[in-house]
Amino acid sequence: MRMKLASALRTVALAAAIAATSVIAQTALVDGQVTKIDATQGKITLRHGPIKNLDMEGMTMVFRVQNPALLKEIKVGDKVKFEADRVNGQLTVTKMERAK
Q: Looking at the domain assignment, is residue 46 inside a domain?
C-alpha cells in the first residue's frame, strides 16, 4: 500500500512540475516603452502591446515593479521587453530588460 501511495504522489508531483513549466514557457516577453518612472513608489508607466497572460490589449498604464532595482537600469523613452502578472492583486512587472 505504501509503495502505491508513494508512486501516486511522485506521479502527481511530476504532473504539477510539467504543468508549471508549460505555463512559464507560454509567458512571452511583451514589447513596451517607458513613459514615466516613479522610483520612490516602485512604479513604472509603460506603453505596451498585448499582454496575453493577463488578457489585456495594448495600452499605456502604470505597473508596480517586483524588483525596484530594475528601475535603475532604464530611463524614460527606453524600449523594453517585460513580463507582468498579478502579484497580491496588483499588476506587477516581474521581469524587464532593455529591448535590443
A: yes
Q: What are the helix and strand counts (H, E) for the chain? A: 1, 5
CB 82 within 8 A of CB 29: yes
DSSP code string of 16-63: HHHHHHHHHHH-PPEEEEEEEEETTTTEEEEEE--BGGGTB-SEEEEE
Structural domain total, the chain = 1
* CATH number, residue 58: 2.40.50.320
Stated pTM of the model: 0.72
Is residue 76 a part of any domain in this protein? yes
Instruction: Write the pLDDT tens digit of every residue in 50-80.
Output: 999 999 999 999 999 999 999 998 999 999 9
**CB-CB contact of 54 with 86 (8 Å):** yes
User: Residue 52 belongs to what domain range?
Assistant: 30-98
Pairing of strands 43-48, 59-65: antiparallel
